[in-house]
Amino acid sequence: MIERALDAIARTLLVCAAVLGFALSFLVVADVIGRGAFNSPVKGTPELVSISIVIICFLQAAYAIRSGSMLNVDFITTHFPLPLQSYLAMAGAIVGVLFFGLVCWGSIEPLGHAWTSNEYEGEGALRVPSWPAKLVIVIGTGLASISYAVLAIKNLKSALAGEGPAGAVSSLH
Fold this sequence. Notes:
Layout: H1 2-38, H2 45-59, H3 61-66, H4 82-116, E1 120-121, E2 128-129, H5 131-160
Antiparallel strand pairs: 1-2
């Protein structure tokens, strides 16, 4: 049940990231045309692009983990026995839990500060609130940490059963 919920959330966030990226492309094209043709760029484009890139990256993190798309260098471990491969994959997933968990934990205070102090990015033409990006970082890293925890458990089960590492979730492809 947890895996199905994670899959649904990961797919939904991926779609949100894709829509944001698609909309962002129109903003960038309008900015380039405005600069070149009318000598008048779209105001606030750099601020919107910088915040949107952060949001897009962290919206996709859980999907990348669930679908097996995170970087995995296995040219040495493929020569090991299958249970050892599973234990090593589990260890890698635990490192992922720790990394994303620490980033999530470390991002909570900056989110609270951005929310309470009404923090903005950019000066002048367009001021963009910074709390949405910080909120997405907390949510994205939290979901990534949970996804790695589920992957660690699956790899432990595979190792105990004498099988190879648990792969990507086939329902996401």
